[in-house]
């Protein structure tokens, strides 16, 4: 179990290195709900914080486009889904 938001963030950063914007967003959210989670140890023991920050699905696709010189370029696009529940 994590002792602090910073302790939790060390784990997040080790699994998602190089994702600075994601780290900032996770830190902001968990800073605001940390007290709530500490008051409910069953959530911590069930691994809810770790499950919240792990995407359920990641879809990678190609995006072909033509530049100003008429050359075809190909970039990667991503859709990251954290929850597929409907409703």
From TrEMBL:
Residue ranges of the Glutamate/phenylalanine/leucine/valine/L-tryptophan dehydrogenase dimerisation domain? 55-87
GO BP terms: namely: glutamate biosynthetic process
GO cellular component, alphabetical, reads: cytosol
Molecular function in Gene Ontology: glutamate dehydrogenase (NADP+) activity
Instruction: List the keywords (alphabetical).
Output: Oxidoreductase
Pfam families, alphabetically? ELFV_dehydrog_N
| Protein family (similarity comment) | Belongs to the Glu/Leu/Phe/Val dehydrogenases family.
Which PANTHER family does the UniProt entry name for this protein?
A: NADP-SPECIFIC GLUTAMATE DEHYDROGENASE 1-RELATED
Identify this protein by name.
Glutamate/phenylalanine/leucine/valine/L-tryptophan dehydrogenase dimerisation domain-containing protein
Could you read off the lineage of the organism from its UniProt record? unclassified sequences, metagenomes, ecological metagenomes
